Amino acid sequence: MFLSDFRKEFYEAVLNQRVLLLVASDVDALCACKILQALFQCDHVQYTLVPVSGWQELETAFLEHKDQFQYFILINCGANIDLLEVLQPEEDIVFFVCDTHRPINVVNVYNETQIKLLVKQDDDLEIPAYDDIFRDEEEDSGNESDGSEPSGKRQRFEEEIVERTMKRRRRREWEARRQEILFDYEQYEYHGTSSAMVMFDLAWIMSKDLNDMLWWAIVGLTDQWVHDKITQMKYVTDIGALQRHVSRHNHRNGDEENSLSIDCMRIAFEYDLCLALYQHWSLYESLCNTCYTSASLKLWSVQGQKKLQEFFADMGFPLKQVKQKFHSMDISLKENLREMIEESANKFGMKDLRIQTFGIHFGFKNKFLASDVVYAASSLMENTERDESGTDNFIKALDSLSRSNLDKLHQGLELAKKQLCAIQRTVASCICTNLVISQGPFLYCYLMEGTPDVKLFSRPVSLCLLSKYLLKSFICSTKNKRCKLLPMVMAAPMDVEQGTVIMVGIPPQTESSDKKNFFGRAFEKAAENTNSRTLHNHFDMSIIELKMEDRSKFLDALISLLS
Fold it and tell me: If phi over 0 gives left and psi between -120 and 50 gives alpha, with beta otherwise, what is residue 450?
């Protein structure tokens, strides 16, 4: 059931209890977790934190801990499946679920005792009515008769038969309508308000919100924007809501007493360039490895490289300057940098090069944009350079969000640069070797075993980012108008020894896209129709694991299903 008063029904309920925190492996979940940890620290709430990357880990963690805990808090996992059916908990166990995944499972919505949803009600949830989905058993059983009446009662007996037949028909009609309503409701997968923002609202209601918590809420929202989970409209609306809090927390008068101390933290609203990591890289590298600019200029071609040179010439920036570290560039060039880049970008058809965002200053030396932190934390979480466990990577990513661990954040930024370069190399090679094929209802691309950087793309977040970059670039490179409106399915080898591939489906990249994804249900149906050996282990239903040998029959089923 939905909670209306988070403070009373959630926070005060767990205040004097030991709770288990189950946190998904995405940056928004990390940020929500940091805010909740800070609140728990204030009130000395005992908790155990367990990172979970999929349904199997969630089930395992629950089975291991169910005897020690009564209260479980799930962050960015658990809302979109029937939790009670999957976990089979005892009747006194309570789950508090703060999850951005939509649609929310109807059983979770209408369970009054064990499932408590920490969800913003202003998202357009469109939950089906209770009576359309659930029906009392007594209504259906009726008073069945055994049919052994004497002939005098025949008329009444015939009336009963007619009545029973009508009941069965009504029951069938109701079942058919229920299936239709559920299909419409569950057909598309999408994302609601960031969990970090929901947790920040809780802190604000309790007057315990700190500047650090506000920053984590900003990073959580920016994670949704960077990974293309929400619409531009939703992003701008949520940025506006956070901007009011930023003004309140970072208000400074001009007098000396309120001037910044050297280790102070300050958040500021920025109308900045959406160039990836440009303040920690060179302007040249950033332009080459940002999806929007790389796709618009078609940098994988010789013509595109010429265009890039023209772009710098138009701005009047010498190549020597743009190829060195951003902080080493001439101050005279940096002063009007944003306006100059925007002016030239407009001439080259790049109209959306600036974005509303926030930056953070630690003292006078360190400045980061929210998107820098998202790229860094994501890269730390899916680091494939060292064979460390998922939990170790999760803890490192969590640490990188604290201002006391700036060295971890810088480590994450270096990893993010490598990841973005790997994505651009792979996009260029896929387009130049025509690996993107139109399968009719969708575009398809498979990364062969032995492709450079293929190990990185066996991880879900990296593969999703690559798919989105590749689809945008393909749209810019193709002349086929129909292909520009198609969604995309991408697959990469996951575990060579076990012979599995990881597959992801992403919606079409159109201006008016509502970011709703229909591949989750389509994957389930295609697997069912072909008896393919699939594993639906990810919290995003549009990511599945599949046996290599079943790939072609699975794809054939998907094509016929969506045609």
Answer: left
Strand partners, 493: 501
Q: Which of 97, 99, 91 is nearest to 10 (CA)?
A: 97
Please tell me whether residue 382 adopts helix, strand or coil conformation. Answer: coil
Based on the number of CB atoms within 10 Å of its own CB, is 516 exposed (0-12), middle (13-18) or buried (19 or more)?
middle
DSSP 93: -
Per-block mean pLDDT, blocks of 10 residues, the chain (563 long): 87 89 94 94 91 92 91 92 89 91 90 89 78 70 50 73 88 88 88 93 91 93 92 91 88 53 75 87 90 88 89 86 86 82 86 88 82 93 82 91 88 92 91 88 89 86 92 87 87 88 89 82 90 89 91 90 86
Q: How many CA atoms lie within 13 A of 495 on its CB side?
A: 6
Contact 217, 197 (CB under 8 A): yes
Strands 354-362 and 366-369: antiparallel
- Total number of residues shown for the chain: 563
Tokens standing for 95?
């789950």
Question: Could you give the CA distance from residue 29 to residue 58 in angstroms, rounded to a whole number?
Answer: 14
Q: Identify whether the C-beta of residue 554 lies closer than 8 Å to the C-beta of residue 546.
A: yes
- Residue 319 tokens, joined: 């190549």
Instruction: Give the number of other CB atoms < 10 A from CB of residue 102.
Output: 19
Q: Cα–Cα distance between 452 and 437 in angstroms, integer? A: 20
User: How far is 319 from 309, CA to CA, in rounded Å?
Assistant: 8
Asked if omega into 103 is within 30° of 0 (cis), the reply is yes
DSSP state of 11: I
Both structure tokens of 78: 């658990």
Q: Rounded CA gap, 310 and 86, in Å?
A: 58
For residues 172-205, b (16+ Cβ closer than 10 Å) or e, as one string?
Answer: eeeeeeeeeeeeebbebbbbbbbbbbbbbbbbee
Whether the full predicted model's pTM is greater than 0.85, yes or no, is yes
For residue 465, give the nearest of 389, 545, 379 by alpha carbon: 379
Q: Which of 516, 563, 517 is nearest to 544 (CA)?
A: 517
